[in-house]
Amino acid sequence: MNNHAKKLATPAANAAGPSTLRHAMQLLKITAAGGYQGASIDDYLDAMTLSRPSIYRLLKSLKAEDYLRSSPKRGRYLLGYQLLALGAQAGNGSGLRDLMRPRLLSLAQRFGDSFYLFARDGIYAVCLEVQNGAYPVGSFVRATGERVPLGVGQASIALLAQLPLAERHTLLKHSATQLEHDYQISIEDVETEIEFLHQHGYARGVEGSQLPEYTGLALPILDHSGHPLGALSCAMLKSRMTDEHRQAVLAGMRHHVTELVEQAHSLLHLE
To answer: Where is the IclR-ED domain (predicted)?
Structure first.
């Protein structure tokens, strides 16, 4: 073992490493919460227990690695572009995002609604890509990278429906309080919508939640072995959800899902 390796292996280094990492992650989250205005040293001091010199050391290190950058507004920090590059790869581990992006754009241009690509991330559904048409609508997620608990929205219903029954019940039991409190969604309603998907082949999402004026559709994206890769979702105003429009959108979504899996299955790498 060389001297550098010995240094890394010391108990002091091992003890400090996780703590430093947690503080760095906390600092990045505070910066992200600042939005386009970024965050100031006072924002970090208010939210963290670290001293001013310690925060400045972390800021300097994160800037050196391009995870942070200086804001045009003096004394404030913004997330660095290196995080954008890492995020693009994190959301494209299977190659699905690159393959679906032009299809989402095609659907949005054709039908005018908002189309999303979601994937499962533990107990959450994370948005990997979104394309808005001429009639964009609100959603539980506002941008790529945002996530919601499984059970919220039609895409998460499509993802939940692919899980083994025991795993699904355990997951929903764990999330029940959050679903009820934050989204006014009951486990019974989620199970009803999962059954609807099994009967009709598409998901609708739970009615009467926080976005009562919107509705949507979602399809699971399954590989040739039936493994769930993600979910293709459409959100629209309820006034646009006529029988004719629903059938047309579903046909378009099914076409793109089938075409993607048939033509590009050799490019989809399971994680």
So the answer is: 82-271
pLDDT in tens, 116-131: 999 998 899 999 999 9
Side chain identity, residue 150: L
The CATH code of the domain at 2-85 is 1.10.10.10
**Domain range summary for the chain, segments of one domain joined by +:** 2-85, 91-270
Question: Which residue do the tokens 């006034």 mark?
Answer: 239
* Domain spanning 91-270, CATH class: alpha beta
Instruction: Map tokens 């949005």 to a residue.
Output: 108
- Its pTM stands at 0.69
SS3 for the chain is CCHHHHHHHCHHHHHHHHHHHHHHHHHHHHHHHCHHHCEEHHHHHHHCCCCHHHHHHHHHHHHHCCCEEECCCCCEEEECHHHHHHHHHHCCCCCHHHHHHHHHHHHHHHHCCEEEEEEEECCEEEEEEEEECCCCCCCCCCCCCCEEECCCCHHHHHHHCCCCHHHHHHHHHHHHHHHHHHHCCCHHHHHHHHHHHHHHCCECCCCCCCCCCEEEEEEEEECCCCCEEEEEEEEEEHHHCCHHHHHHHHHHHHHHHHHHHHHHHHHCCCC
- What are 171-227's pLDDT values in tens digits? 999 999 999 998 899 999 999 999 999 999 999 988 655 667 788 999 999 887 788
Q: Residue 208: its pLDDT value, please?
A: 57
- CA-to-CA distance for 45 and 251, rounded, in angstroms? 53
Angle at 150 (CA atoms; ends 145, 152), nearest 5 degrees: 85
